[in-house]
Amino acid sequence: MSGQDLTISTGERTRLALIDAAYTLFVRQGYHGTSMRQIAQEAGLALGGIYNHFANKEEIFKAVVFTNHPFVKVVPQLTAVSATSVEMMLREAVQLVDNEMQNDRGIFNLLFIELIEMKSKHVPEMAGILMPSVLPFLQKLMGYSDQLRVKDPMVILRMFIGTLLSYYLMGQMLTGTMLDTGASHSVDAYMDIFLNGLLTYQEIES
């Protein structure tokens, strides 16, 4: 047991065990397919014990999202991005996200559950919490505005997130089909399109 574990109270340890158990079940069965009884059993608790920590299943799911969502883990790390150009800053940020996504494949399912079953209801609150950590990154990015065609940082952020979500969503949906490009088309290839566009422009000779 680590020194950090020794500082956690029994109640907090039980709460974390419930969050871990709920995460395992949610990504396997979905939100609506998981019951409070199943979460309690997965955590090794009696059903009544779960209500000492969470009022209902939605409260547990919110705790799961705010603990395991990749953005929650990645955004605080953005302050450590040390690149000195727009391209390298964004590529470094993408690598942070991709590391989290590859480390735990269950995150894919959690993203879809939040999007589809919960209709993204927790995203506004999450964005409000994370934005103070995002702003320094955006401010640093805009310090290289001479390298940017788009000058609105919020537009850049939305396009950046949209590109990542598209990459992971399509990868999940198309696995095993003729459109499955596999490892030959990594997230770096999608970032090339995000940064440089799809078309090649050649000077038209008169």
How would you characterize the overall build of this protein?
The chain has 2 domains: 3-61, Homeodomain-like (Arc Repressor Mutant, subunit A, Orthogonal Bundle); 69-195. The protein contains 11 helices and no strands. The chain has helices at residues 3-6, 10-29, 36-43, 47-50, 57-68, 70-74, 86-103, 106-117, 123-142, 153-173, 187-196. Helix 2 (10-29) packs across helix 8, helix 7 (86-103) packs antiparallel against helix 11 and helix 10 runs antiparallel to helix 11.
Percent of residues in beta strands? Answer: under 5%
Count the beta strands: 0
Secondary-structure element order, as H and E? HHHHHHHHHHH
The chain-level structural class is mainly alpha
**N- and C-termini, Cα separation:** 74 Å
Using the CA coordinates, give the radius of gyration.
20 Å
Short description:
This protein has 206 residues and is mainly α. Helices cover 65% and strands 0% of the residues. α2 (10-29) packs across α8, α7 (86-103) runs antiparallel to α11 (187-196) and α10 packs antiparallel against α11 (187-196).
List its salient traits.
2 domains, 11 helices, Arc Repressor Mutant, subunit A, 65% helix, single chain, 206 residues, mainly alpha
Secondary-structure blueprint of this entry?
Layout: H1 3-6, H2 10-29, H3 36-43, H4 47-50, H5 57-68, H6 70-74, H7 86-103, H8 106-117, H9 123-142, H10 153-173, H11 187-196
